[in-house]
Design brief:
The chain is mostly beta strands. The chain has 2 domains: 172 residues, Beta Barrel (Cathepsin D, subunit A, domain 1); 141 residues, Cathepsin D, subunit A, domain 1 (Beta Barrel). It contains 4 helices and 28 strands. It has an 18-stranded mixed sheet that branches. Strands 19-20-25-21-24-23 form a 6-stranded mixed barrel. Keywords: Signal. InterPro entries: Aspartic_peptidase_AS, Peptidase_aspartic_dom_sf.
């Protein structure tokens, strides 16, 4: 029997090998406790009982190379820092962490990454939680900080050493988009914060624009448009905080609509991720509309997508180099994503 196939990190760790400077984690925000023994967890808050969550639960994050990291705990033991990756549909524990915590094997599976397929072992994780091992009011009414237990009984075990070295930090695994279930949550890269909301008390951000949230292999996806000078070109983008590049599009877009780029292809390189690596062509798109904004001169990588991403729809991804300019609030149960633009950075918006 073939192992089941999951869209685990379709684009997780899409690290460009061109101009990848060394980075270090922002240690002023948080430090994961790597000491042995059980971690003291406050609350406890659990997604198994969403109605018992506080009105909003704020979890501080760290950033390294633009990626969002959070302290994680498995069965009460520190698992180090894990990456929050909305381009992943299955959570991951690093093989080294799984071994040090003596997590038992629990079956096998297969993941699809940008480079193809990769087989893995499942590891049993009876309790998987993220956040600071302390809880305190942060000065705002109905706002709490603490540890959140996710609903995940087993995790994929993959080699993470190379990815951690590229980020300049020891990486314990991946927190996937699907780990949050149907509970509303927000990612604010500029303020390095994850916020989880009690579903009944949730209210959309007052100044945010609302956009239909689609799903591709259980991953969040939005509609976007390009302009080739003669017509609007519809593309679909996986919202991928685990991808480094601002914008990645299938090579078919460049072949069919060469007018979407502002200059001819300016370089080539290799993008490495789960399942291997793929070659890419790098340039800029002239006009790009997403989340209700008109953006100009956005860096783009054109790549050949995995076979399961090829079809009538032109499916790419929007990565953290661009997502860091947004605060995104996901409401999976209702099929909406709310976007707030942070104008800092080089991107131009209208």
């Amino acid at each position: 029997m073939k192992p089941p196939l999951f869209a685990l990190a379709v684009t997780a760790f899409a690290l460009s090998l061109i101009g990848c400077a060394g980075t270090s984690v922002d240690e002023t925000v948080l430090v994961a406790d790597h000491s042995s023994g059980a971690a003291e967890q406050a609350g406890p808050y659990t997604l198994a009982e969403p109605g018992a969550l506080p009105t909003r639960l704020d979890i501080p994050l760290a950033r390294s190379g633009g990626y969002l990291l959070v302290p994680a705990f498995i069965n009460g033991e520190s698992a180090g820092l894990m990456m929050i990756d909305t381009g992943a549909s299955l959570s991951v524990v690093a093989q080294g962490v799984a071994g040090s915590l003596n997590l038992p094997k629990d079956g096998t599976g297969r993941t699809l990454g940008i480079g193809g397929f990769e087989d893995f072992d499942y590891r049993r994780a009876d309790h998987f939680s993220i956040g600071q091992p302390a809880s305190a009011l942060n000065g705002k009414r109905n706002t709490t900080r603490g540890v959140l237990q996710l609903e995940r009984e087993k995790m994929a075990s993959l080699r993470m050493l190379g990815f951690g070295e590229a980020l300049g930090v020891s990486l314990g695994g991946i927190v996937a988009f699907t780990d949050f279930g149907d509970v509303p949550f927000a990612l604010d890269a500029s303020n390095k914060q994850l916020t989880v909301y009690e579903p009944r008390a949730f209210r959309p951000p007052a100044d945010a624009s609302r956009h239909r949230l689609h799903s591709f292999r259980r991953l969040p996806m939005v509609r976007a448009e390009l302009d080739d000078g003669n017509q609007r070109v519809e593309v679909w983008l996986i919202i991928d905080f685990g991808a480094d590049n601002a914008l990645t599009l299938p090579r078919a877009v460049l072949d069919r609509y060469p007018g979407v780029v502002s200059v001819n292809a300016s370089g080539s390189g290799t993008t490495r991720g789960v399942g291997g690596s793929v070659s890419s062509t790098q340039t800029w798109v002239e006009n790009f509309r997403v989340f209700g904004l008109n953006l100009q001169h956005i860096p783009v990588n054109f790549e050949t997508p995995p076979p399961t991403m090829r079809g009538e729809k032109l499916i790419g991804r929007i990565g953290n180099s661009l997502l860091q300019h947004f605060r995104l609030t996901f409401h999976p149960a209702h099929g909406w994503v709310y976007s707030e633009w942070n104008p800092s950075g080089d991107a131009e918006a209208e």
